[in-house]
Amino acid sequence: MVFLKLRLDLRGIIVQLRIRGYNPGLKDDCFNAWCKVDFSFSSEPWLNYEQNDAEVFVSYEVSDLYFILKRLLCDELTEIEELDMREPDFNFTLHPKFDIRNDPKVAYVALGHEIRDIFMDWRVCFWHGGLTPNYLSVSLKRKEIQYLCSYFGLVTGQLSETDPAVRSMADAGVLIQ
């Protein structure tokens, strides 16, 4: 089986993610349910962080991420959700739509700009002989969240390579070999 790689351009930071070894039947056996993950965050010349065969997701975390991102995309979340993975490499903070007029720090909101759309912060903690206090945080807008959600759906089998969303990602160069 060919494992496709997700490639996102987050306004100059290129994120690549490939997940292998997903097994939905091992939720209760966390120690044997690790996915093998290749990922990189790069922006020449200043950033080049890469890990291969990393155990950053337990299988159930991948499916949990798929379902909660679907909820975020469908505007079903009303509060900010912070998701810590079993391993501290990744942390996700999901921000639902927000009526900016409810922010006491904002004095004026232009007509038609009252609602801030969903977004997600993805924190990547750095390792150097062990976990360090250093991290990179990237922000994903709705389209990028849709891509990530569809990728998790593909990995978990919720979506197939023939699904229109997946085919569209391949056509756009977001899914690569």
Description:
With 177 residues, the protein is of the alpha+beta class. 21% of the residues lie in helices and 37% in strands. The strands form 3 sheets. A 5-stranded antiparallel β-sheet has the order 4-3-2-1-11. Strands 5-6-9-10 form a 4-stranded antiparallel β-sheet. A two-stranded antiparallel sheet has the order 7-8. Helix 1 packs antiparallel against helix 2 (142-156).
C-alpha-based Rg, rounded = 17 Å
Cα end-to-end separation: 11 Å
Helix content: 10-25%
Order of helix and strand elements from N to C terminus: EEEEHEEEEEEHHE
Write the layout of secondary structure elements.
Blueprint: E1 5-10, E2 13-20, E3 36-43, E4 47-54, H1 59-73, E5 81-84, E6 90-95, E7 98-99, E8 115-116, E9 119-127, E10 131-140, H2 142-156, H3 164-171, E11 175-176
Antiparallel strand pairs: 1-2, 1-11, 2-3, 3-4, 5-6, 6-9, 7-8, 9-10
Helix pairs in contact: 1-2
In brief, what are we looking at here?
This protein is α+β, with helices and mostly antiparallel strands and 177 residues long.
Which short descriptors sum up this protein?
single chain; 177 residues; alpha+beta; 5-stranded antiparallel sheet; 4-stranded antiparallel sheet; 3 helices; globular
